[in-house]
Amino acid sequence: MKQYLFFALFCLSSSLFAQKSNDPVLMTIKDTPIFKSEFEYIYNKNNTQNALDKKTLSEYVTLFENFKMKVIEAEALGMDTTKAFVDELSGYRKQLTPAYLTDTATQNRLVKEAYDRLKEDVSVSHILIRVAPNAAPADTLVAYNKIIAIRDRVTKQKTVAPAKCGFFARLFGKCRPTIVAPENFYDVAKSTSEDPSAKENGGRLGFITGFMTIYPFETVAYNTPVGQISTPVRTSFGYHIIKVEGRRPTRGQVQVAHIMKFAQKGVSDTVVAKMKHVIDSAYQVVKSGTDFATVARQVSDDKGSAASGGTLPWFGTSAMVKEFEDVAFSLKKGEISTPFLSPYGWHIVKLLDTKPIESFSEKKSEIERRIQRDDRTSIITQSFVDKLKAEYQFKTTEGGLAPFYQLAEKNAVKDSLFKVEAAKLNGTMAAFSDKTLTQKEFAAFLTKYPATQKSTAKEVIDEKYAQFINTALVSYKDAQLEKEYPEFGNLVREYHDGILLFNISNEAVWDKATKDTKGLESFFKANRNNYAWPAPRFKGAIIHCKNEATQNKVLELLKKAPKDSIDIYLVSKLNKDTLYAVKVEKGLYVKGDNKIVDKLEFKEGEFAPSKEFPIVFTSGKMLKNGPESYTDIRGLVTADYQGYLEEQWIKELRKKYPVEVNQKVLKTIKEN
Questions:
Q1: Whether 100 contacts 527, CB under 8 Å
Q2: Residues above pLDDT 90, as percent of the chain
Q3: I want to staple 30 with a disulfide (CB 3.0 to 4.6 A). Which of 72, 335, 376, 657 is the partner?
Q4: What angle do CA 652, 658, 660 make, to 5 degrees?
C-alpha cells in the first residue's frame, strides 16, 4: 500500500487530478493549466458571505494567481519531492481516506443493529466446548460433534425401552417404551461445559447487552427466541449452544454510592456475622440522618470509592455482580437500601442518579468507535472488498494457487526453501481493472507477512491469498480516490498546495525576514520616517539596588557594560547563587507605561521603592522623534519587511510565470 500511496503523493500536481471533459481551463500559468473546478472549490470555500475579508471575484482571481504561482515555483524547486513533504502530505491524506475505504452501508447497518441491541437486555445461559481458532479440521470436527450431541441431550426427547418385558406383558400390550423429556440444561452444563464457571452457575451468564460478548455469540443470543436453545455457534473460544431465558428493555445506567464491609465468598461464618454487625450499625447511623458520604469515608472497606464518599462510576447491565445490580436498579433516587450480601461482602447502597440510554444520534460516535475494536470491523472490511471485486471485475486465474500447494507439500510455508522456490514462480494469480497480480508478488507477500494462526499448509496459503487479494484491491482503490471522488481530490490538493505554499513562503519571505539583519537595518533606514513617534520614549534600563554599595558597583560596571545587554551583564556580575543584589528591567517606555520612568525621566508622578531594593535609578536615553534602530521596534519592522519581500517576490514570479485568464470561462463563475 505504501508504494501506491507514494506514487499518488508524488504525482499530485500532474495526472493524478485527472479532469473531466466538461471542466474547462480557467487560466494558464506559463505551461500549467488551472481548471475551473479547482478555482471554484477554493473560491467558494474561502470567500463565503461570512468571510472576514470578503473579496470580489476579480480580486480573488488575483489572489489565486499569486497563490498558484508560488505553488508552481515550489514544485519547480523540487519541494514536493522531499521526504518531509511526502511524509506530511501522507499523514494528512491518511486522515481523509478511512471514510472512502469502507463499506459505509454495512457499517451504518451494524451501528444501528448495535444500538437496537443496546436498548434490550437478553438473559442467557450457555454450554461451551473449546476448540482453538487454528485447530486442525479433525479436532474441529470432534468438538462440533460433541456440542451437537450435547444439544441433542437438552433439546430432544428420548424413547427408553422397558428394562423387562415378558411374554404376557407383550401379549396384553403393556410393554411400551417410555418417553423421557430432554435433560436439564443447567445440569448438563455443569457436567459437560468447558467454561470453568459452569460448574457453579450451570452456564448461567445472566443478562447481557450489546458489546458485552463477542459478536457471533451476541448475534445468536439476540436472534434466538425466549425459551429456545440455539444451534451451535463458533467463536474464538470454541462451539457454544445458547439458551435464551428472557428479555427486557434496557434499564439504562445508574450512579450509586455504597458502604462496604469485606466478607468474600469462602470466609468463615464468624467473619460474615462480624461484618454484618458492622454494616448494620453503619446502616442505623445513616438512617438516623448522618451524611452517607461521611459514613462511607469512615467505615467502607472499598477505599477506592470511600475517598469520594462511596460514589461509584456510572454502570449498566451486568457491570456489577447480580446481587449488587439488582438492588441498585430497584431503588428510587435518593433511597438507601438495607444491608445485603454479595460474593464480595456486605453493602449499603444509595441511589444518586439514573439516566436512560442516549438517543441514537448521541450514541452513534461511541458505537462506531467500539465497532472498530470487535469482530464487526472484519465484516465491514470483507463487505467492502466484495464490492471492490464487483466494481473492478475481479477474476482469479484458475490454477494460480496450485504451485504453492505443491511446494507446501514438500516444505513448510515458512521454510527458506519454500520461499526460494516460490519466488521463481511468475504466473498470473488474478486480474482486476487494469491490474494483474502475479505469483511472484504473492510469494513476496507470503515472505513479508508470515504471521498466521492456521495449522495446515493449505489453510495458511488460502488465508494469505485472501489477505493478498484484499490488500491489493484496497491499495488500488486508495490510489484511485482522487480520480473517483472530486471532493477527496480537492481536499488532498488543498493540503498539497497548502504545505508547499507554507514552505516556500517561509523560505522566501517569513524566515528570511527574521534572519536577514542587514536587510532589516537597510529597510528601516530607507523607511525611517514611517516609524516616527508622536511623543518621546525612554530607551534604557530601570535598575533596583539593594544598597548604596551595590549602586556604586553598578555605576562602575555601566561604564563598560554592552548597551544591548545591560540587564544580563549586571545580573551575571552582581547576583550570586541565592543572593540578589540587583534587579534590572530593560525596555522602551512611553509616558504612562511605568511609574518609575515617569518620575525619573518624564518628571511626573510618584513611586515608592520596595524595601528589598530601596535604591532605584535609570540608565539610558530619551528618543524624541523615533527609534534609533530597527531593534527598537523589531516586530513592526519585520512585519513591514516581510510585506516588502512579498511584493518583490510576486513581481519576480509574474515575470517568470505569465498568466493568461480565459475570460469566457471566468464569466461562467457565479460571484459570491
A1: no
A2: 85
A3: 657
A4: 145
